[in-house]
Write a structure and sequence with these properties.
With 126 residues, this protein is α/β, with parallel strands linked by helices. It has 2 domains: 57 residues, Signal recognition particle alu RNA binding heterodimer, srp9/1 (2-Layer Sandwich), CATH 3.30.720.120; 58 residues, Signal recognition particle alu RNA binding heterodimer, srp9/1 (2-Layer Sandwich), CATH 3.30.720. It contains 2 helices and 8 strands, in the order E-H-E-E-E-E-H-E-E-E. The strands form 2 sheets. Strands 1-4-3-2 form a 4-stranded mixed beta sheet. Strands 5-8-7-6 form a 4-stranded mixed beta sheet, covered by helices on one side. Strand 3 and strand 4 form a beta hairpin.
Length: 126
């Protein structure tokens, strides 16, 4: 066990098409950009940095696509905002994987995907 680890501070989505992903996430999320390079972008996602990084290292692997997404990110909203977010996603042409649904774990969710097939979720605790 890594006993000195005390928190998760940074999540990184590895990308094949960094420019397309930068545009998607900038248009999707209200988070301020903290850093940007030609091959990366990071947002302050409220206590956790959310990064995008071009796959350029030998161990980065290959994008999973919709058959095998590489990551799932969940974004918390107020209960009455799940439907609003769903409508905004539909209006932007974002692929919806599962429309607003009440989950047995006490969440109301909408699942959708980014341009590289990663699963994204907007959820509320209900």
């Amino acid at each position: 066990m890594l006993q000195s680890v005390s928190s998760l501070s940074y999540s990184i989505v590895l990308c094949d098409d960094i420019e397309r992903m930068k545009t998607f996430y900038r248009n999707l999320l209200p988070f301020p950009v903290t850093t940007e390079t030609d091959t990366s972008l990071a947002f302050d996602a409220g206590g956790v940095l959310l990064g995008l990084r071009l796959r350029e290292r030998g161990y980065d692997g290959h994008g999973g696509g919709t058959e095998s997404p590489g990551v799932q990110l969940a974004f918390l909203v107020a209960p009455d905002e799940v439907e609003t977010c769903h409508q905004q996603l539909v209006e932007q042409g974002v692929p919806i994987l599962e429309p607003p649904t009440d989950q047995p774990r006490g969440h109301r969710t909408v699942y959708f995907s980014d341009p590289e097939g990663n699963v994204l979720e907007v959820y509320a605790e209900v």
